[in-house]
Automatic annotation (TrEMBL):
It comes from Cryptosporangium aurantiacum. GO terms for biological process: proteolysis. Residues 165-256 form the PA domain. InterPro entries: M28_fam, PA_dom_sf, PA_domain, Peptidase_M28. This is Zn-dependent amino-or carboxypeptidase, M28 family. Residues 540-550 have a biased composition (Low complexity).
Amino acid sequence: MLHRRSLSDSDPSTRPRAGRVAVAFAAAVTLGLVATGPAVADPPTPAQAGAAASKKLTSAVTPAGVLGHLRQFQRIADANGDTRASGTPGYDRSADYVAQKLQRAGYRVSRQSFQFPFFEELNPSKFAQVTPTPTTYVNGTDFYTLAFSGDGVAQGTVTPVDVNLAPPRATTSGCEAADFAGFPRGNIALVQRGTCDFAVKAANAAAAGAIGVIIFNQGNGTEAENPDRYEAFQGNLGGPVPIPAISTTYALGAQLAGTTNTVVRIETDTLSETRTTQNVLAETPGGRADNVVMAGAHLDSVPEGPGINDNGTGSAGLLEVALKYAPLAKHAKPTNKVRFAWWGAEESGLLGSEHYVASLTPAQVANIGLYLNFDMIGSPNYKLAVYDGDNSTGTGTPPAGSGALETLFRKYLASRGQQAVDSEFDGRSDYGPFIAEGIGIPSGGLFTGAEGIKTADEAAKFGGVPDVAYDPCYHQACDSFTPTADGGDAATYQRLAAAYGRKLVGNVNVFALDVNSDAIADAVARLAFDTSGISAPGDTPTAAAAAAPSGGQGHLILA
């Protein structure tokens, strides 16, 4: 067969024109004669993606949604002895409610059980001077029962133990067994707060033969500067002690220390035993597992009440954020895995978060990029406080990266036109185990105040009533949606209602709850995409400069 060469192979006039068209088109584009269509936009940076997610999530989280969870917690308490304390049916039903909501939203949910020492004051304690001047002291004003106090009646002569009433009143009273040398067995030990844990002082007193122990406040600094070192305080012995144990004001302790042959009577009606409770954990299916963004709140109340502010508010705010975050994460594909936690037995001494952190391997610790904590975010006479991550107060040991978390929260509050104050980084809530020596995970969070008294300066910043507690029902039955019906001071709540109007719903300030719930949403959304300046995938957390201060029973203290 004769091969016939194609004309196009030899005749330039018949060759395809594509090459020449392309050249001409390129020239036209260069001259701006041909429209090329819209330019392809660069993908958003992680920070931009986080900002967009924040806008969506803060819009989705509403006060009505958060209040709905709070009302459910109230119903659970109403049906279970008016409490949601760990180790009670009220707590178990609260954990069921949270876990079921999260499972339906598509989270991977787990429940981590552990045993813990349970304490309940069955009836209010009594404290009185028998001789030389019969006096009945006021529970909650002059004294408090220390958590895990022994049960019973102790009447005997008061014996001071190595107390120091001379300013600045530095003391190691009761911290050493030697302090009790020559202590008369059968007497009541009077020791001063300072240096070591209350448990050490109480154990040494019991070992020396004391039938009861009084720990009075230290009185260091001036009362105007350090009122918490003068007034009666709530404290935690960390575990059962065999003798009645109470705390008193500095003034009362100093008075007892300054007299001789004073006989007092302490009556306590308490229960201490081992019970089982659990943490509820939920995490997103996707996202980097080597840079987990973690956020938590304690779910338990004290035995005395339903805990609607402490810590129903933190638990409800976090739950609503988690539920609204789930569909957003499914579609937006955030960079980092997010893990939410509802802690048990916080009111017994941060035991749920301590158990969780202790159960982690070094690799698992390294995979947690940061931890956020939300404890009491709707106090009725609120302040807007942010954990002091940059240690500007000089009161804590925040791990590296914590300052950036403080800045993140402060920027959001400022965007809402709100001022903020520091909350001391003193380990008194569930971030304590995360910042402890050898762990050192960057941490931050929000807090609206507990038993402390609102100052005039804070009232100028946030409104409300000065010289009244941030939460007048802190650790009481009236921490509920009906505070005055449950024993709250009606006059105090009338003053708060006059100051806040419709913002006050039961023992909750809805404005504070709303702003803080949105601040949680903003932080979770942004950090899910971008943790630059805080942590990076696979980072080994920077250990805190020193051990985290001793934690406490839901803002109660151990030392």
